[in-house]
Design a protein that fits this description.
Layout lengths: L6 H9 L1 H5 L21 H20 L1 H8 E4 L3 E7 L2 E2 L6 E4 L5 E7 L3 E11 L5 E12 L2 H6 L4 H18 L3 H6 L1 H16 L4 E15 L12 H12 L14 H7 L20 H7 L7 H7 L1 E8 L5 E8 L5 E4 L8 E6 H8 L5 H7 L3 E4 L1 H4 L2 H7 L2
Parallel strand pairs: 9-12
Antiparallel strand pairs: 1-4, 2-3, 2-5, 6-7, 7-8, 9-10, 10-11, 12-13
Helix pairs in contact: 3-4, 6-8
GO biological process, one term: lipid transport
Membrane topology: Single-pass type III membrane protein
Subcellular location: Cell membrane; Cytoplasmic vesicle; Late endosome membrane; Membrane raft
Length: about 400
């Protein structure tokens, strides 16, 4: 850090700086960056530098009553002034009055007070599959004004991007419960990681506060596997294999034994079943229509949205279905809804079956690209409540 100078020393540096600049002919002038950018000047360059500085100071004296309004600058205690004389950086000036030579000096003010900014909330996926909206509040200050000017062009933007990248990397490695319970520990770790980068810019971060705005998707505690819900499994297999046919001369019985026999691949399905001959019902239409008994007013109050499903059939055609959970007990059917849907979901027929059988989660389908959403993603993720109602 630059040591404060006396009034006489500051006036001497400002007025007769051309004498000090000639030290660069013998030794490097302090540039504050420490990269060797201010190498010793050659003798012709030193002479030109000193001559131009002397002429600038002479012009200042000749026109002093007028040039004083432009050459004298007031630097408050909380600021420092970085002066460039003929392109070469000088020691920080201030606080107090600083004298600039006309036409050859340029300057930049640096505020040393503590400042703050917020990292805008962004959607992140934790280690256990939860989706949450997280932001952060960061307080920082400049401890070396020369480094802050010489190393980074836009200090605020660079610091904000560094904080956001550090926050993203730290949260991707942790589950949701750890993020909620150890926010102070994570904030301290972020403070150290950000300071490792910003100290080289002459900036020091004093405080980082992590803010979890909302949890958009609960964590996936255990993947859906062989222990699927029996009701949903039988429902999907029923419409996948077609209408349930009774055994020879017997009446159809929807028990578990019939379900096991129906999915057997050893015996191919008969092309005709007596007098009852009807075209096979599409899988998507059967699955969505079968949701009607599970709809309720409680589910409508919990979700409160209208969905349109554009299902791509195996033949390549696209069929539209709707699930309206805005009024009454809700309804589901073929076609488009009466009003404008809140979310339009596009997926394949096989993915729809996997979704209703809980072999696929809405978030996992969206992240893998098997589920395309047009509209609010948070509203689309409320389909998880519909799947829970099917248990």
């Amino acid at each position: 850090r630059a040591l404060p100078l006396g009034d006489f020393d500051r006036f001497q540096q400002s007025s007769f700086g051309f004498l000090g600049s000639q030290k660069g002919c013998l030794s490097p002038e302090r540039g504050g960056v420490g990269t060797g950018a201010d190498a010793p000047q050659s003798w012709p360059s030193c002479l030109c530098h000193g001559l131009i500085s002397f002429l600038g100071f002479l012009l200042l004296l000749v026109t002093f009553p007028i040039s004083g309004w432009f050459a004298l600058k007031i630097v408050p205690t909380y600021e420092r002034m970085i002066v460039f004389r003929l392109g070469r950086i000088r020691t920080p000036q201030g606080p107090g009055m600083v004298l600039l030579l006309p036409f050859i000096d340029s300057f930049q003010r640096v505020d040393l007070r503590t400042r703050a900014f917020n990292v805008p909330p962004c959607k992140l996926a934790s280690k256990d599959g939860a989706v949450l909206s997280v932001g952060a509040d960061v307080q920082f200050r400049i401890w070396d004004p020369v480094l802050s000017v010489m190393t980074v062009k836009d200090l605020n933007t660079a610091t904000r991007m560094t904080a956001q990248n550090a926050m993203t990397k730290a949260l991707l490695k942790r589950p949701l419960r750890e993020i909620q319970m150890e926010k102070l520990k994570i904030s301290d770790q972020l403070l150290l990681e950000i300071n490792d980068v910003t100290r080289a810019w002459g900036l020091e971060v004093d405080r980082v506060e992590l803010a979890v705005e909302a949890v958009l998707q609960p964590p996936q505690d255990s993947p859906a596997g062989p222990n699927l819900d029996s009701t949903l499994q039988q429902l999907a297999l029923h419409f996948l294999g077609g209408s349930m046919n009774s055994m020879a001369g017997g009446a159809p019985s929807p028990g578990p034994a019939d379900t096991v026999e129906m999915v057997s691949e050893v015996e191919p399905p008969a092309p005709q079943v007596g007098a009852r001959s009807s075209p096979k019902q599409p899988l998507a239409e059967g699955l969505l229509t079968a949701l009607q008994p599970f709809l309720s007013e409680a589910l409508v109050s919990q979700v409160g949205a209208c969905y349109q499903f554009n299902v791509v059939l195996p033949s390549g055609t696209q069929s539209a279905y709707f699930l309206d959970l805005t009024t009454g007990r809700g309804r589901v059917g073929h076609g488009v809804p009466d009003g404008i849907p809140d979310v339009v979901v596009e997926m394949a027929e096989a993915d729809l079956r996997a979704l209703l059988c809980r072999e696929l989660r809405p978030l996992g389908a969206y992240m893998s690209g098997r589920l395309k959403v047009k509209g609010d993603l948070a509203v689309a993720m409320k389909l998880e409540a519909v799947l829970r109602a099917l248990k």
